[in-house]
Amino acid sequence: MHYLNEIFLKKICMSCLFYLNMFSVVPWSSLIPEKLSLCKLSMKPLSDGPPDPKSHELRSKILSLQLLLSILQNAGPVFRTNEMFINAIKQYLCVALSKNGVSSVPEVFELSLSIFLTLLSNFKTHLKMQIEVFFKEIFLYILETSTSSFDHKWMVIQTLTRICADAQSVVDIYVNYDCDLNAANIFERLVNDLSKIAQGRGSQELGMSNVQELSLRKKGLECLVSILKCMVEWSKDQYVNPNSQTTLGQEKPTEQDNSETKHPETINRYGSLNSLDSTASSGIGSYSTQMSGTDNPEQFEVLKQQKEIIEQGIDLFNKKPKRGIQYLQEQGMLGTTPEDIAQFLHQEERLDSTQVGEFLGDNDKFNKEVMYAYVDQHDFSGKDFVSALRMFLEGFRLPGEAQKIDRLMEKFAARYLECNQGQTLFASADTAYVLAYSIIMLTTDLHSPQVKNKMTKEQYIKMNRGINDSKDLPEEYLSAIYNEIAGKKISMKETKELTIPTKSSKQSVASEKQRRLLYNLEMEQMAKTAKALMEAVSHVQAPFTSATHLEHVRPMFKLAWTPFLAAFSVGLQDCDDTEVASLCLEGIRCAIRIACIFNIQLERDAYVQALARFTLLTVSSGITEMKQKNIDTIKTLITVAHTDGNYLGNSWHEILKCISQLELAQLIGTGVKPRYISGTVRGREGSFTGTKDQAPDEFVGLGLVGGNVDWKQIASIQESIGETSSQSVVVAVDRYLDFVRWLCAVSMDELLSATHPRMFSLQKIVEISYYNMGRIRLQWSRIWEVIGDHFNKVGCNPNEDVAIFAVDSLRQLSMKFLEKGELANFRFQKDFLRPFEHIMKRNRSPTIRDMVVRCIAQMVNSQAANIRSGWKNIFSVFHLAASDQDESIVELAFQTTGHIVTIVFEKHFPATIDSFQDAVKCLSEFACNAAFPDTSMEAIRLIRHCAKYVSDRPQVQSEYTSDDMNVAPEDRVWVRGWFPILFELSCIINRCKLDVRTRGLTVMFEIMKTYGHTYEKHWWQDLFRIVFRIFDNMKLPEQQTEKAEWMTTTCNHALYAICDVFTQYLEVLSDVLLDDIFAQLYWCVQQDNEQLARSGTNCLENVVILNGEKFTLEIWDKTCTCMLDIFKTTIPHALLTWRPVGGEFCSGSSSDAKEKLVKFPEQKLFAALLIKCVVQLELIQTIDNIVFFPATSKKEDAENLAAAQRDAVDFDVHVDTQDQGMYRFLTSQQLFKLLDCLLESHRFAKAFNSNNEQRTALWKAGFKGKSKPNLLKQETSSLACGLRILFRMYMDESRTSAWEEVQQRLLNVCSEALSYFLTLTSESHREAWTNLLLLFLTKVLKISDERFKAHASFYYPLLCEIMQFDLIPELRAVLRRFFLRIGVVFQISQPPEQECGVSKH
């Protein structure tokens, strides 16, 4: 009968639903009572004891739930949107479900879960608060409590499996609850609970069998994996698969892949067979937009952050209230006024009630203000006293200290009377205060188990006598209070006391019966709580947001990644079940995918490290302990590398380490002998001494130790891995830099083994370079930046085998790269070939250096036509080789360089122009290698050859544009061509030994002389800055002997060469170079080197004589000034001022040490003074040669002497070469300047020669040889030159304006000279003046009679005195003629006819 009724009821309900879905005009009020009846029917209690499946109560309950499920599952869009129907669900169905959801009857519980799933699928936008209650108070509680049965947990987790398979539901749960400040963290708590179940935590307390535990763990893992799959699905639009493989989680393509419906495909692809109906889930939220909030990811993320801050603050408050309040205020989540804090204490139910009471009862001023505000926010109007007290004490637990209670009761009493001012019972607030205190005491007395003797009603009434202003309160009133408190104690509100038991509160249950009993008690309490909460929220309209943005996944994952990782790690660690391992690996793959998509680095690295750890490839336990799960882990790791390589970043390190070790394991499995496997793990050293069944020490890192090795197992592992080989992991990764960088790092780890380096990863790097060379240049240059740096390090590896492999690989790659050629102004070749340069610079191994040179030579010989920017690296390598001491290296490098300069430059000069400077610099380095002088000379010849290229093809230099765009086109041939050549030649001069530097100097000036006509004026300025470096004191050798040699040879040579160039290009150089040349000549005569000083004056003479005709007046001024400066600075004044040590000459009585100490500085001084004396003589001769032309004065002296010997003066004879001198180009003032110099030099020499005592002291001190020093030649030659200048000017018709000054100077000089001659006592000294007197007398005899009168009258007395000396015949003959002419001019006598050749005008 009951069965027929059930069938009948089902048919009626289905019919009603059909018509309701078809016709929306049916009155809803007619259906609601039916639904209400079903809800009431489902809530009828069952009889005590074990449920009877055939009992009417149970069957009716099950039937009503089935009917409700059918109604909900078949409800159409009209049902889902009607407000009345929705309200009926909230008010009746959810309340009924809260009771049945904790039923111990499996059928009832399962139906309740199904109804909840349907509500979640179809009505979640309207049931936000109700869904929270279901999760928080029922499902998650059942998962967390240790008393629930396996069946209940199993059914809950089955339901969660279906929920977790729907991406929309998973994201919605997070958005609507975890990001709601007022809601529980459902998603976080769900993941944590599932993680604990998946780890098997609490299974012992539940008393489950191993099979049950494993099943539950699998379900937990399945749920976690489903959640992660949903998150992957939700963010799939942001993922790009580099290999265009199927997306994660799809083993085989399904028929739905090609269907047009997108959402069902999404659900089924990542869901399970028990997933929510895709059609239903696709419509979630679509019919109730008025109930849905706007999906703003940024806003929800802010809310989540605020919620975390609040939770952190609450946690701090529950430990230290003031610290928690301070934290919330610092974070801007709580106001600073007492009212704000009081409101927070009122509204926040998560605060610890004891801490709230302690905080409110504290005597601190601010705490009091908060307490007053807290009490004032209560409204006790119209409430009786006990009700008001109950309401007051619901929010916190009274502190134990009496004074704190006193303060709280005092304020409560005042507030109560303030809210009930019309009452007449209490005379004052004191009455209320005392009564409240007494009620607290009564509650404690009646309901505390520690109090044995309970207070009676009479005792209570008696205790309260006289409290109402010395009067009693009515006994009936006090009696009613007593009865009410006895019936129900004053406590906090019920929901505050219902907390989920923590692990510490769980007790081990001795038996299944006790567990069930305890579970039933918990379920009864939980049902009450859930029902109360459901009734409380039945009328609440809470907006529900249907998530749409993929950005939600990021905070979801960051929130839950730790429990996910814990579950998967424990599963892989503890369980060998293949299904568990498969789920864990799939979960890790999903987690890595999410972390990669959103670039969450820490989490991504953690998951990849976990995956790598479970491969057992990088741990010490070794591959011999590998199981199937470890092999599957390896496969998963490599799959991750394939599918997520674009996003792995630093996680590549762990993956590549595993692949490296995998390769080693495969080699071992194939039976390769250890000596052919170059090491394994850093720090593991040893040698192979065992047989095939013994593991060599090198394999310790893979765990191949301890007894015999099961080689069959290793082979089996290799076979299991199969095609998942490390070989297949070298792929073209779009975001390649991290991959390449970490592959290089792993390669370095392999190579760092001192005895057994491995080159597996290095080989992969070579392969990557080879196959990625076709990428666009921008990408390739970034790849090579990393790989090139790695080759730099590997090429310098102390193990020559490794370095040779690196260099040879570089050679092969370079040859392939150079085949592609390069356009102008690009630098890819330069970047690519840089490792050769680095290796050559850092690796000192002759073998490697020789190999590098040979590789470069091969490139030049085979790819010269394609090389562009790479020439720089080539010449840099040869530059480094040029300084080597190994003959073969230097020889090969120089041969190749010569080939480039002579042949390649000839054919491809425009392509090599950018590296022309490097080529010259390279040749310069060859020239400077002192170990190979023949090579040095040949290198200088090649530099000379380079100058021909620059001269023949200047247009190529001018048109080429590169990194010198700021250089004017007309100057490019100088900057890129001539300057490097001349600069490097100057470097050779400054660095090399005498023969090489002399050759370099010669070539440098040859180039100047040959091609100088093409140089611009400002180029010469740059050029001579280089040239003058030869004379730079700072660059001269420090050793005195080397310095002397340098000055005598190189400086001397350079000085003459400079003057030659100046003379050749005078018109250009006179403006830009003359000052510098004079300065350099001045420098030369200042040096303590006689040869250089002589050369300085000689060069000055040559420059002036050869170019003086073209000098301007300004240049002549500079020339005279230069000579004047030289004169002044080289006069050896110290000859007159020097004194021996102690004021007198030190005899040989002093000790040798003292003598050496004294003589050393004196010798240096004397040498310098001697050079100055030489310079003075040279300069006197220079002036004479400049003014009168070389040898003119000597010829004149010879003729004068010859005439005197003939006793006849030919007054009309003139020297033929006289007019070749520069006299006619010099102004009178310039000549006077020179004359002043000569006379100053003459007077100094006279002063020194006259100081016999000083000369003696110098002679005894060792100055100038065996005889006393003298300056006779300086004394006579300076005066002779001066007299020639004066007499020449005196006879010059073009200088009539200066005659008067000349005559005066002549009279003074000549009379002074004659007077000095009369003072001479030394016969040798007088003999030195013979030619001077002949010159003087001859010149005077040649002047006109008028002038002769003036001179003769001036000199006559002095000449008479001279007659007393024993003069030579020639001088007496001239004097005779002088006196005879005096007689004629002054008409004292008549001249003989034959002697009348003197002019009278």
Automatic annotation (TrEMBL):
GO terms for biological process: protein transport; regulation of ARF protein signal transduction. SMART domains: Sec7 (SM00222). CDD domains: Sec7 (cd00171). GO terms for cellular component: Golgi apparatus; membrane; perinuclear region of cytoplasm. PROSITE patterns: SEC7. PANTHER family: BREFELDIN A-INHIBITED GUANINE NUCLEOTIDE-EXCHANGE PROTEIN 1, GUANYL-NUCLEOTIDE EXCHANGE FACTOR. This is ADP ribosylation factor guanine nucleotide exchange factor 1. It is found in: Cytoplasm, Perinuclear region; Golgi apparatus, trans-Golgi network; Membrane. Keywords: Cytoplasm, Golgi apparatus, Guanine-nucleotide releasing factor, Membrane, Phosphoprotein, Protein transport, Transport. GO terms for molecular function: guanyl-nucleotide exchange factor activity. Residues 299-488 form the SEC7 domain. Residues 252-266 have a biased composition (Basic and acidic residues). Gene3D superfamilies: 1.10.220.20, Arf Nucleotide-binding Site Opener,domain 2 (1.10.1000.11), Leucine-rich Repeat Variant (1.25.10.10). Residues 242-275 are annotated as: Disordered. The keyword RNA-binding does not apply. It holds the Pfam family BIG2_C. The gene is ARFGEF1. It comes from Catharus ustulatus (Russet-backed thrush). It comes from the Eukaryota.
